[in-house]
From TrEMBL:
This is RidA family protein. Residues 7-146 form the Endoribonuclease L-PSP/chorismate mutase-like domain. InterPro entries: Endoribo_LPSP/chorism_mut-like (IPR013813), RutC-like_sf (IPR035959). It comes from Plantimonas leprariae.
Length: 155
């Protein structure tokens, strides 16, 4: 894979937003040694929730994947803020934890999570291949369909 992360974002037609400020008493990310942990990111675009509701009823699998992609975009925005604007310091995405607001009988959380995983591998290349958990939950903040947190190894 050629090009920098910024070049791959541009090729994908993605402009990272300003990193969202926390909505309560927490920090949006924590750096410890060479590890960067993001807080959970919602599917926000220009500060507005893109996909709300539960998968399995009023939210389609495709909309869930789109929500996961927006969460991943916001994860990269937080990482960029944490790293002083330099995503080139990302060595590896180690793990994603994907929370999917789901009806009790919805069992495709892993397919929803692919919306984030596929995007992050597209943008980060091999450094974007990661371990992952995809968990169904009854509700998420603001009625978001998806929330994702990430753990990176950084320079």
């Amino acid at each position: 894979m050629s090009g920098t992360i910024d070049e791959r974002l541009q090729a994908a037609g993605v402009t990272l937003p300003e990193a969202a400020a926390p909505a309560a008493n927490y920090v949006p990310y924590a750096l410890f040694g060479n590890m960067l942990q993001t807080s959970g990111q919602l599917p926000l675009d220009a500060g507005k929730l893109v996909v709300s509701g539960k998968l399995g009823s009023r939210v389609s699998l495709e909309d869930g994947q789109r929500a996961a992609r927006f969460c991943a975009i916001n994860i990269l925005a937080q990482a960029k803020a944490a790293l002083g604007g330099d995503l080139g310091q990302v060595r590896r995405l180690l793990k994603l934890t994907v929370f999917v607001a789901s009806d009790p009988y919805f069992t495709d959380q892993h397919k929803v999570a692919n919306g984030a995983s596929d995007f992050l591998v597209e943008i980060l290349g091999d450094a974007g291949r990661h371990a992952r958990s995809a968990v169904g939950v009854p509700a998420l903040p603001l009625d978001a369909a998806v929330e994702i947190e990430a753990l990176f190894e950084v320079a």
